[in-house]
Amino acid sequence: MSSVTKRGTEMRSYYDxxxxxxxxxxxxxxxxxxxxGLSGGSSVLSLSAKLFGNEKLxxxxxxxxxxxxxxxxxxxxxxxxxxxxxxxMLRVFKPTSPMNVGAWILLVNGGASNTAAVLELLGxxxxxxxxxxxxAAMFGPPLATYTGVLLADTAVPVxxxxxxxxxxxxxxxxxASAGAAACMFLDPDDAGPARRLAVGAxxxxxxxxxxxxxxxxxxxxxxxxxxxxxxxxxxxxxxGAGAALLAKRGRRSRGAAxxxxxxxxxxxxxxxxxxxxxxxxxxxxxxxxxxPQRERAERTGTKATVKPG
Length: 309
Hints:
mainly alpha
């Protein structure tokens, strides 16, 4: 163990080794972040459209959410490596663990969403279908946002320091992808609420993203360099272009609506990968761990120490 030292303006750690271990997640996790958010957002959109009498939008969002729910568990299981590990997470309920709570949220939302979708296809048991839709909508927002809480509940600097914004950022991204996906499969006349949701959610997402990077300060510079920088730029460009296309031409042209929706969804996928790579880059460079620790120590008047490895 060694005390934090300073050479010029650069913060160094023990023999310049990373202070924390880099996350070992693979491509399946950010893909799951997207499908889970899509499912959660679509569950809420489906019930909302039903309450306002838009049956076509409600049915389309219901099916989209069910597809997302079917894709999510295989992605998680693939990253875990052994299928029984997902089952083991469900043996207990641990409110202090975002990962454990998230597994239960996925189970409940996925079960309700798929039940409602199957009953919709069969045209049977409408009261049961409605109850399943209500349950799915109730668990939709937690499913869309808990992954942001999960990332923030780690020692990875760029994730932990963004704990105030990440859940909201993922929630707005989920709403944008749900609205955009529905626009891809509906006539413009039926997709009005979904189109407005996608455009509004993208605007909120871009504002939250900018606020997060500004508040992160030096730590947030990882979003402008390397793989995370390229993915972050792609996320903003694709989502912004898609939202603009939906707003300007999506209400008149089904082709424009489909393209705009696809661009927004592509941007939301890039956002999840950008966040993951930003975490890896910030964990890899000890500066992002050591300097905030030293600054906190100076504010509290204590001696900052770090443990190598």
